[in-house]
Amino acid sequence: MLKDTEKRQFDTIIVWKIDHFGRNREEIAINKMRCRKNGVKVMYATEHIPEGPTGIILEAILEGYAEYYSAELAEKVIRGHRENALKGKATNGNVGLGFHIDEDKKIIIDELNAPTIRLIFEMFDEGYKFADIVTELNKRGLKTQKGGKFNKNR
């Protein structure tokens, strides 16, 4: 959208809220300046910013609040992930081959695939290269978590 302002095909961008136009005050200012340079006005669907001095200070406050909210949310997410990890709980839905998430969101060993994981670690510990491990896993007909063949990335 910002790149399209250079084509001058429209004269207004309507953004839902200020915090949807950038992650921080600097990015929001750069995005607005880019639009202004290309003759495109920025308006907000859920925030009325009047013209003139009052609008300038209101917009600055809303931009500061948007940056504050983003930073605070990031801290909360990191804290939540850390607390879940300390409790042995999953922080997302992908725990990798050899594990499951139980009804309490605890990470538990998947006994069906645990032998594959043990084999991988044993081969690595014995000095096998990744390519050799992958070849051996595929030779044995073992599958990735999604049921595919192993490769250097899986």
Global shape: elongated
Distance between the termini: 36 Å
What proportion of the residues form beta strands (DSSP E)? Answer: 5-15%
Spatial order of the strands forming the largest sheet: 1-2
The figure for the number of domains is 2
Give the overall average pLDDT.
91
Pattern of helices and strands:
EHEHEEHH
Cα-atom radius of gyration: 25 Å
Number of DSSP helices? 4
In short:
The protein is 45% helix and 9% strand. It has helices at 25-37, 53-86, 114-125, 130-139; strands spanning 12-15, 41-44, 99-101, 107-109. β3 and β4 (107-109) form a beta hairpin.
Question: Can you offer a commentary on this structure?
Answer:
- This protein has 154 residues and is mainly alpha-helical.
- The protein has two domains: 3-86, no CATH class; 93-154, no CATH class.
- It contains four helices and four strands.
- The strands form two sheets. Strands 1-2 form a two-stranded parallel ribbon. Strands 3-4 form a two-stranded antiparallel ribbon.
- The longest helix is centred in the middle third of the chain and has 34 residues, at 53-86.
- The model has no long low-confidence stretch (mean pLDDT 91).
